[in-house]
Specification:
Elements lengths: L1 H79 L4 H4 L1 H18 L6 E8 L9 E6 L6 E3 L13 H13 L3 E2 L3 E3 L4 E12 L2 E11 L1 H8 L8 E5 L5 E3 L15 E7 L5 E7 H32 L5 H15 L14 H28 L9 H16 L6 E8 L2 H8 L1 H18 L5 E5 L2 E6 L1 H5 L1 H14 L12 E8 L7 H19 L1
Antiparallel strand pairs: 1-2, 1-7, 2-3, 4-6, 5-6, 6-7, 8-9, 8-11, 10-11, 12-14, 12-15, 13-14
């Protein structure tokens, strides 16, 4: 009877130990899987939007350069026009046309991929062929002046032939025209036109035609992950450029792909097509490894429980109690088993498993908040930081602060010319300069080429000296042997003297605007 009783107790102890170990392993594994999936998914989504926004900015910068050129022409031409007599008087019109012709001839070369530039006057004030039209010829593709279109041959409603004039004039705002094929030159082009108004009168239009390849080449080169691509469509969804689909056709999303839509400044839709496997590969691999580790730990613990099932019941109860506490998330508890035998070894295994799990969870959290290139805090960390910072500012704990935004202006130039490795070197050099200058303030890399520093206490008081120190350090890099070691920074600072009168988002916007002004001043 005693033997049977001992066996019953032994079985119960074994069952209890195994149950506790299984629950502990499953809880640990489930917690790791949940945390990993959530953190990695959120980080991937932010990175994906950051990458697509960066590529969109590249395309928009090309479009803005075109707009800037036409805007410059419009300002210059309007400035030369002192009265309507310069249009209505034949002699003055000829002189004004010649000055404008020379202006276009001297400046058109500054616009990349320009295939035509033109200045046309109001046909109600001037002859129907008045104005300037400079275009590439079909023979040698050189820009030459040709006879302008005769307005008298077309009705204003004839969009195909004279819509490029009357549409902007009627809307009274700059207009991006839909891309079209020029049959004379065989070039698929896009136009940007600005209507001219002065003296409360319609003067005409000024515009430029650009080879559409200038836009599509940048889109064709986009590679965010493996097997992804980008295309552009008009507002109706018809394809304007796609690596494999002809123009004019609608787009159908392939299975297991993700679409990210971004609007370009000319109204077109830039769409990124990304295979889901590309953005989930790392996450799936990490989850798979965590499952294997969890299963391995579970198997080890089961075998250990079977081996030590005949040990002292009290120690097993202590182990079970320890496991249950860990399941409840009490990582700070201690295991008070000091035996120098198998049970003691099992106790140490529990302790090591807890430390390994805490280390793994800390490492995963670190990956989500640390920029892998510069080792400073990343965008995810910045979002958490400003949320806490805003609460401290609202409560009055923080009275004043400053926001410094620094942009590495030559990053994309170095990246395009020397490759990603040299661009990383440039980013690390810039990060080191910023961190060593503002060594008492948190530094974040929030975009591919942009850093943010939150200034408080001594760094806020000494900001002018520190800014001069940073400028001097940046200037010293100009003597570096390699271009990717020569840092060019545009810096913008916004100071909040009273946290109750201004929000953090307003100060961020002010600092960003000041940085853009600094960049424009440098350029």
């Amino acid at each position: 009877m005693r033997r049977r009783l001992r066996a019953t107790i032994q079985t119960r102890v074994l069952t209890l130990a195994l149950s506790g170990l299984i629950l502990c392993a499953l809880a640990f594994g489930g917690l790791c899987l949940f945390t990993t999936d959530k953190v990695v998914h959120e980080g991937t989504e932010r990175n994906l939007h950051a990458l697509t926004n960066t590529e969109t900015l590249k395309i928009n910068s090309r479009l803005k350069s075109i707009e800037q050129y036409v805007n410059t022409l419009e300002i210059a031409i309007s400035g030369m026009l002192d009265s309507l007599e310069q249009l209505t008087d034949e002699t003055l019109l000829a002189e004004f046309t010649e000055k404008s012709r020379e202006l276009i001839r001297l400046t058109i070369g500054n616009t990349e991929k320009a295939v035509a530039a033109y200045l046309r006057f109001n046909p109600k004030l001037t002859p129907p062929t008045s104005g300037i039209f400079m275009t590439k010829t079909s023979k040698d593709h050189n820009l030459k002046f040709v006879d302008p279109t005769d307005f008298s041959k077309y009705d204003p409603s004839d969009i195909e032939h004279v819509g490029w004039y009357y549409v902007p004039v009627q809307t009274k705002r700059p207009t991006w025209m839909q891309p079209y094929m020029n049959k004379n030159t065989g070039i698929y082009m896009i136009s940007y036109v600005i209507p001219l108004f002065k003296f409360n009168q319609e003067i005409g239009i000024v515009g430029v035609d650009i080879d559409f390849d200038y836009i599509t080449q940048e889109i064709a080169s986009i590679r965010l992950f493996d097997n992804d691509y980008a295309f552009i469509a008009d507002k109706n969804g018809s394809i304007l450029f796609h690596p494999s689909i002809p123009r004019g056709r609608p787009y159908t999303l392939p299975d297991n792909n993700l679409l990210v839509h971004n609007k370009l400044i000319n109204g077109m839709d830039l769409t990124f097509v990304i295979p889901k496997t590309s953005i989930t590969a790392d996450r799936n691999s990490l989850i798979k490894n965590l499952v294997l580790i969890t299963m391995l730990i579970l198997v080890i613990f089961i075998f250990a429980s079977l081996i030590f099932a005949n040990s002292i019941t009290k120690s097993l109860k202590l182990l079970t109690d320890y496991a249950n506490r860990l399941i409840d998330g009490k990582m700070g508890i201690e295991l008070n088993i000091t035996r120098n035998d198998e049970i003691g070894d099992l106790a140490q295994s529990f302790v090591k498993a807890k430390m390994r799990l805490a280390e793994t969870m800390g490492h995963i959290k670190g990956l989500a908040f640390r920029d892998p290139v510069t080792s400073v805090r990343n965008r995810n960390s910045f979002d958490h930081y400003i949320a806490e910072f805003s609460m401290r500012a609202s409560s009055g704990e923080i009275k004043s602060y400053g926001i410094l935004v620094a942009s590495v202006d030559n990053l994309f130039k170095i990246k395009n010319k020397f490759g990603n490795t040299k661009a990383i070197t440039l980013l690390q050099t810039a990060s080191r300069l910023i961190c060593t200058t503002f060594d008492h303030s948190p530094v974040f890399r929030v975009n591919e080429d942009e850093f943010i520093v939150v200034l408080t206490n001594d760094d806020l008081k000494n900001r002018k000296e520190l800014e001069e120190k940073l400028a001097s350090s940046v200037k010293n890099t100009a003597n570096a042997e390699n271009p990717w070691e020569q840092v060019r920074l545009s810096i913008g600072i916004a100071i909040c003297e009273d946290t109750q009168s201004s929000s953090l988002s307003e100060q961020l916007a002010n600092a960003e605007n000041n940085m853009l002004k600094s960049r424009n001043a440098i350029e």
